[in-house]
Amino acid sequence: GSPQNALTVWKDHMVSQGFGYKLGTDLPGEKRGFIPNSGVYDKAYRGSWNGLTVISISIGQGEVFSTPLQMANLAATIANRGYFVTPHIVKDIQDAELDST
């Protein structure tokens, strides 16, 4: 396929993991990060770009911007065997009984 199609598939995977959008936390001022699409490269390179132009974004470099919370949430999703949990910011938890088993 074309680099444009590959970039679209890659972006869809990134978005499905919470990148490029706010995670919906209760933290005020949350940022969304940025995951580029083919329009970004069409504008920057006047339509003359290929797979080598975007190879660095596959490892999070180049035009990819993510927040520390998005990176932490990705690690949590991997640890939860793919289960995505919306992160919440808490000061403390009171009167919680912990199961020690």
UniProtKB/TrEMBL annotation:
Which InterPro entries did the record assign?
A: Beta-lactam/transpept, Beta-lactam/transpept-like, PCN-bd_Tpept
Q: Which residues form the Penicillin-binding protein transpeptidase domain?
A: 10-97
**GO MF term set:** penicillin binding; peptidoglycan L,D-transpeptidase activity
Query: What biological process terms from GO does the record include?
Result: cell wall organization
Q: Name one GO cellular component term.
A: plasma membrane
Name the Gene3D superfamilies on file. DD-peptidase/beta-lactamase superfamily (3.40.710.10)
Q: Which PANTHER family match?
A: PEPTIDOGLYCAN D,D-TRANSPEPTIDASE, PEPTIDOGLYCAN D,D-TRANSPEPTIDASE MRDA
Tell me what this protein is called: Penicillin-binding transpeptidase domain-containing protein
